[in-house]
Amino acid sequence: MKTKPVVSVELGHIRFSNEGSLALIAGPCVIEDSTFTVALAKRLARVARERRISFVFKASYDKANRSSGGSFRGPGLERGLATLRQVKEEVGCPVLTDVHCANDVARVAQVVDVIQVPAFLCRQTDLLLACGESGCIVNVKKGQFLAPWDMEQVVRKIESTGNRKILLTERGISFGYNNLVVDMRSLAVMKQFGYPVIYDATHSVQLPGGLGHASGGQREYLVPLARAAVAVGIAAVFCEVHPLPEKALSDGPNNLPLAALPRFVRELQTLDKVAKSLHRYHEKTGRRR
């Protein structure tokens, strides 16, 4: 596979690049209510300012892929977008949300900065084209059923719209029933497409449908796997954060506790600097040889 020229994706003062400083995409899995969401966004933004890390807030207005039909899905499109707009106005940070339906894209694009395509839908051509045509940054999560090189076709679909603002996210691959594993080779493979690569620290430790009525998770592996991913040299880490994960209305078992975020970010930034310094060194000495 021939490596394509490296592309960086700009979002205001934020630069997503596999060769630049690590960025953070963080927030709750789902918008539980506007008060909670805005308050959490403010706390996350404070941590980001203190750590001097580029930050994008994420939250879903509708979780259309819950294990059970009775699970909490979120406030829906209108109320959800109103909350995300409030976050942008009151916190002053860019926002990301996922879409499950091509018909939602135009409306969502009026509010958010990054549109995310869920892993289960990463091969849905109409959805990918609608996201590309929106002009927004498009973050596509690699499906749990896809090899990393299969994501090149996903990239080409979005590129066909003229949109080159593409992010690719690794979130593990199915390994038997109710289990995921992360193949760190995926990060290196997807980097060859030339676009910024992100590691989803939350859903990579998910146990899909593991509780029967809901997904479980192995939060204890979130930090070590994130360290390993950052050591590869990536653009950003995606992480769902909640003040009380045991009370979260979605994905609680694999959410990072808010209190653990400052140390988490500090450790990843340290590893990121080392990994990219080594990369620059090898690039420089390789050229000399």
Q: Short summary of the structure?
A:
This protein has 289 residues and is an alpha/beta fold. Helices cover 35% and strands 19% of the residues. Strands 3-4-5-6-7-8-11-14 form an eight-stranded parallel barrel, surrounded by six helices. A two-stranded antiparallel ribbon has the order 1-2.
Structure description:
By secondary structure, this protein is of the alpha/beta class. It has helices at about 35-50, 75-90, 105-110, 125-135, 150-160, 185-190, 220-230, 260-289, and strands spanning about 10, 15, 25, 55-60, 95-100, 115, 135-140, 165-170, 175, 180, 195-200, 205, 215, 235-240, 255. An eight-stranded parallel barrel has the order 3-4-5-6-7-8-11-14, surrounded by six helices. Helix 1 packs parallel to helix 2 and helix 1 packs across helix 8. The two termini are about 25 Å apart. The mean pLDDT is about 95.
**N/C terminus separation:** 23 Å
Main beta sheet = 8 strands, parallel, barrel
Note the run of SSEs as H and E.
EEEHEHEHEHEHEEEHEEEHEEH
How many strand segments? 15
Q: Taking Cα atoms only, what radius of gyration do you get, to the nearest Å?
A: 18 Å
- The low-confidence parts are none
Strand content: 15-25%
What labels describe this entry?
289 residues, two-stranded antiparallel ribbon, 8 helices, alpha/beta, 8-stranded parallel barrel, single chain
